[in-house]
Design goal:
Length: 348
């Protein structure tokens, strides 16, 4: 279901979705009240929900939609403003599955990147719901093969690198908020997110983790005890200058259709820190981070992945888990504790 008060935008989004034979657009509504009424009668897998609408806006409609159609994945659609970015992050905390940044209506129809992202998110989240439903109906489904874990060097990390996408903002807040004070190395993050949104996310992380967090700027020092977030539309890599860790930003071609991408960050951490680092791959669609995590693992660094049950989408963490390069695959609530054990060890 597509919910947007602009008939032009609604029509363009519906048309984009209908171009893919895997997607059936069951309904389109011009405000949240109409959407809630429709969802109560005809539940759907995915709802594309605008934020700014008359009668009942997206944020107010969100909990009502989740109540009317439990299990539905809701993607918040908003224009790129700091206010809408803040609302989108609040919506994620209230149960939205993901967000998508809309170009202005005059550029929407010509945006191939928006069309690709819209279809990918709708299909991935719809498939995730179908899988959950199948597992609920058929609890005796064949068990998955046991994941192969590898042993990492017993060494205290000097830097932690995190990659995340769909479901990532809430996962990051939960993980970073649970980190013990004993963990004081730099933390660098690549979260798939557009510019403006990363500015707001950095503010949320700073408040939720009680640690300094900022978007990276080129050449800035990444100090122990701080968190550095890749800004939207820039790849983040780390470099070493004497004993300092510094950020390097670039707008080289997207990797895995993403900028920022996790792979360049992980590769740079492997290059400059080797086994004295740790990779964490959190919830997200696709496989970004797998190639970079493989390089880190080859250097002896531990690679941790969020498990399937606690992930919104087990694409990125599932890719590294199934590649056999993880030293642990854990529920989100146990990752901070596992990290704490690494920091209890003396450096090799």
């Amino acid at each position: 279901m597509v919910v947007d008060d602009s008939a032009i935008v609604r029509g363009l989004i519906v048309r984009m979705l209908k171009e893919d034979p895997r997607i059936d657009v069951a309904a389109s509504c011009s405000n949240g009240e109409m959407a809630v009424a429709h969802a109560a009668r005809h539940p759907v897998d995915v709802i594309i929900l605008d934020i700014e609408m008359p009668v009942l806006d997206g944020l107010a409609a969100l909990p009502k939609l989740l109540e009317a159609s439990p299990g539905t994945s809701i993607i918040m659609a908003s224009t790129l403003t700091q206010r809408n970015a803040a609302i989108s992050l609040r919506a994620l905390a209230l149960g939205a599955a993901d967000y998508i940044a809309k170009p202005t209506s005059d550029k929407l129809g010509a945006s191939e990147a928006f069309r690709r992202e819209l279809i990918e998110k709708a299909i991935t989240l719809g498939s995730a719901k179908a899988k959950r439903t199948t597992e609920t109906v058929s609890p005796r489904a064949p068990a998955r093969p046991q994941l192969q874990l590898r042993s990492a060097l017993v060494r205290r990390p000097r830097i932690i690198a995190i990659g995340s996408s769909t479901g990532g903002p809430q996962a990051l807040l939960a993980l970073l908020g649970a980190l013990p004070a004993t963990i004081q190395c730099p933390i660098v993050i690549a979260q798939h997110m557009p510019a403006t949104f990363t500015t707001v996310l950095a503010q949320h992380i700073a408040r939720g983790s009680n640690r300094p967090c900022s978007e990276a700027t080129d050449g800035m020092e990444i100090k122990p005890g701080t968190i550095c977030l890749a800004p939207g539309d820039y790849h983040l890599q780390v470099a070493r200058e004497s004993n300092r860790c510094i950020a390097r930003l670039s707008q080289t071609a997207p990797e895995n259709f993403c900028r920022p991408s996790v792979d360049p960050l992980f590769r740079s951490v492997a290059q400059h820190y080797g086994a004295d680092s740790c990779a964490i791959v959190l919830t997200g669609m696709g496989s970004d981070g797998c190639a970079g995590a493989r390089v880190m693992a080859a250097m002896g660094a531990p690679v941790l992945a969020q498990d399937e049950a606690s992930s919104v989408v087990w694409g990125m963490p599932g890719a590294v888990a199934n590649a056999g390069i993880c030293s642990a695959v854990l529920p989100l609530t146990r990752i901070a504790g596992h990290l704490a054990t690494l920091f209890e060890r003396q450096a090799a």
